[in-house]
Amino acid sequence: MDEKGLEILLSGLEGFSHPKPQLEQWATPGPIAAKMAVLAKGDIEGRTVLDLGAGTGILSVAAALVGARRVVCVEADGSLRGAFGRNAERAGVRETLEFVESDVSAFWGAADVAIMNPPFGAQKAALHADRVFLEKAMDRCESCYSLHLARTRTFISGLAGRRNWNTRVLGTFIYPLPATFAFHKKRRKEEEVDYHKTWK
Ligand code: SAH
After folding, report:
1. How far is it, in rounded angstroms, from Cα 92 to Cα 61?
2. I need a labelling partner for 1 at 20 to 30 A (CA). Which of 7, 36, 69, 80 fits?
3. Would you say residue 69 has pLDDT above 60?
4. 152 within ligand 1 shell (Cβ under 6 A)
5. Closest ligand 1 atom to Cα of 20
6. C-alpha to C-alpha distances, 144 to 82, 110, 135, nearest whole angstrom
7. Ligand 1 pocket, 55 CB below 6 A?
8. Under 8 Å between Cβ of 36 and 14
9. Cβ–Cβ < 8 Å for 157, 105
10. Looking at per-residue confidence, does 181 or 196 come out higher?
11. Model confidence pLDDT, tens digit, residues 54-66
């Protein structure tokens, strides 16, 4: 399947029917998820992949469709299991995905590579959530592909650098946000986000 086909399939999947702002539940738009998976394909093919904060599984499905052997999908909100299962079924990758209901901080499984769109850590209730997610990915994997607010770029490379991990920005996206996600007093509708590769 090429990137356009992936984009169309991912855009048709279920997002969050009742998003919980405190968990920063906002599904990755199909075109961004497709691009993320295609850019990570070389490291994902034939590997065990970890999706931290899997939500309804858009990135997990994308990873499976570019050739992951297995995708472990960690999600704190167990009520998403139904939508996650339907998305996996619709994409024909139910056998490849495993939904694990757990807080990221309590997850101790391992994988080869992580691909994730973690909470941006800007909501009061989820402050620094992005740090917790990236630290966990570095603990449990050899490399990590993840989205972060562009204005946290030096913070992200600093976090990786303290472990002597490398980091590179593979691309920057304009990311649409719902009005409920007030990062600023002036409610922004979109944010610049970086797609980082972080590796040992
Ligand atoms: N990966 C999905 C969802 C991204 S939204 C996608 O790309 O569409 C971020 C997800 O992280 C939400 O589903 C939210 O419920 C989950 N989440 C937030 N904090 C978490 C935590 N501490 N542990 C596990 N999951 C968490």
Report:
1. 9
2. 80
3. yes
4. no
5. 15
6. 27, 12, 10
7. yes
8. no
9. no
10. 196
11. 999 999 999 999 9
